[in-house]
Amino acid sequence: MRKIKLLYAEDEQKTREYHIEYIQSRYDFTIYEANDGEEALSIYKEQNPDIVLTDITMPKMTGLELSKEIRKISKISKIIILTAHSEKEKLLQAISMNMIDYIVKPIKRQQLKDALDTAIQVLGDNFLTNPQHVFLDNNCYYDLGIEEYFVNNKTIPLSNSEKKLLTLLCENLNIQFNSFDIFVHIWEDEGKQYSSSSIRTLIKKLRKKIPKGTLCNVYGGLYKLQVNSTI
What we know:
Elements: E1 5-9, H1 13-26, E2 30-34, H2 37-47, E3 51-55, H3 63-73, E4 78-83, H4 88-95, E5 101-104, H5 109-129, E6 133-135, E7 140-143, E8 148-151, E9 154-156, H6 160-171, E10 177-178, H7 179-187, H8 196-207, E11 215-218, E12 222-225
Parallel strand pairs: 1-2, 1-3, 3-4, 4-5
Antiparallel strand pairs: 6-7, 7-8, 8-9, 10-12, 11-12
Helix pairs in contact: 2-3, 6-7, 6-8, 7-8
């Protein structure tokens, strides 16, 4: 299992050093530091960190702009936003970027620890072994890099729509999606008219190929991929 890689973007050097010292005392992370958003994005592209800890207000590129650029590259990296009380409007924009948590300054160490622990839990043991592989059970995994599904190391054919759906769910484990959001993600570029029955049919087909109980119905017509991270 490789070490978790964390990128900490904060333009106040003393603040950054203070919290890095704490993180190093509690976690065995590989840590990268950035003084501003542009430097952080450059490091992100080079190192592909698992967790990004970023202040909202930074020179050259804000934490929100950084997060938007990261989400263009990956939906897997876990983002934790650091914000001041006066930046709550900016924080509302950050929510749409599927962040793990936000911490209001001044940062309390317990809050930082809780946020990092949540990120680690969401990443899961198998993710840390190979960040491109999402294990659905001991013998089945989906490779996000090549968008292929494997059972006992043999490729199981998926339709384009099934691949898009499984990719969406694997990139957002345990996150709930309604039928319309799924429809838009899969067919937004094809001009197809929305149909909830199309989603139900697609869900049914995919369920036949993946382990029983992993693609769950949630009350209110929602769906999520539920995976045990301790597999």
